[in-house]
């Protein structure tokens, strides 16, 4: 698995996508503090714009397991609404499940995990898996969605690095 993604034919003739975005970085905060900060202000880490693409997460004020996070993805000014449900949250990880009705991948999951790498460093990982939600979404993915997704999750990792440098 690479950040470029691995496309694997599924049994039903669609394609599965599996991607990981790993980061090991010096960190002035504990891995638990990093995860807590992300859970407490997910939009700060997830919202991103890149050229004609943008993604906006609108989590509830208090994020808990079972929460729904509405998401708007804009491409060349056309907005597409979708959402994920928070499946689990802990001091080390948070997992989302995609919802039908617009998400590029359905069914799909996204997991964010933080752990101690060594004294003064953390490992942070974003992993996602999913099946294209129809041929149109597969076409969108190959026509630029994959590049935007890579840029967005790499931006997320840059926000984690910034948090680590600041220590809070």
Descriptors for this entry?
9-stranded antiparallel beta sheet; disordered N terminus; 168 residues; alpha+beta
Give the SSE layout.
Blueprint: E1 6-9, E2 15-26, H1 31-40, H2 42-46, E3 48-50, E4 53-57, E5 68-75, E6 78-89, E7 93-98, E8 105-118, E9 121-132, H3 135-166
Antiparallel strand pairs: 1-2, 2-9, 3-4, 4-5, 5-6, 6-7, 7-8, 8-9
Molecular structure report:
There is one protein chain. This protein is of the alpha+beta class and about 170 residues long. It has a single domain (about 15-165), classed as Alpha-D-Glucose-1,6-Bisphosphate, Chain A, domain 4, CATH 3.30.530. The protein is built from 3 helices and 9 strands, in the order ββααβββββββα. The chain has helices at about 30-40, 40-45, 135-165, and strands spanning about 5-10, 15-25, 50, 55, 70-75, 80-90, 95-100, 105-120, 120-130. A 9-stranded antiparallel β-sheet has the order 1-2-9-8-7-6-5-4-3. A hairpin with a 2-residue loop joins strand 3 (about 50) and strand 4. The longest helix is centred in the C-terminal third of the chain and has 32 residues, at about 135-165. The chain is globular, with a radius of gyration of 16 Å. The protein starts with 5 loop residues before the first strand and ends with a helix. The model is unreliable at about 1-10 (pLDDT under 50).
């Amino acid at each position: 698995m690479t950040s470029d993604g691995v496309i694997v034919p599924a049994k039903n003739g669609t394609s599965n996508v599996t991607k990981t975005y790993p980061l090991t970085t010096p960190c002035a905060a504990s891995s638990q503090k990093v995860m807590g900060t992300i859970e407490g202000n997910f939009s700060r880490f997830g919202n991103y714009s890149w050229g004609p693409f943008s993604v906006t997460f609108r989590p509830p004020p208090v994020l808990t397991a079972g929460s729904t996070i509405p998401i708007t993805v804009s491409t060349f000014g056309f907005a597409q609404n979708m959402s994920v449900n928070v499946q689990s949250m802990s001091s080390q990880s948070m997992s989302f499940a995609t919802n039908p009705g617009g998400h590029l991948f359905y069914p799909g999951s996204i997991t964010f995990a933080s752990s101690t790498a060594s004294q003064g460093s953390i490992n942070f990982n974003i992993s996602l898996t999913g099946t294209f939600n129809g041929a149109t979404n597969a076409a969108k993915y190959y026509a630029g969605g994959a590049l935007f997704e890579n840029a967005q999750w790499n931006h997320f990792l840059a926000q984690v690095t910034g948090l680590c440098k600041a220590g809070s």
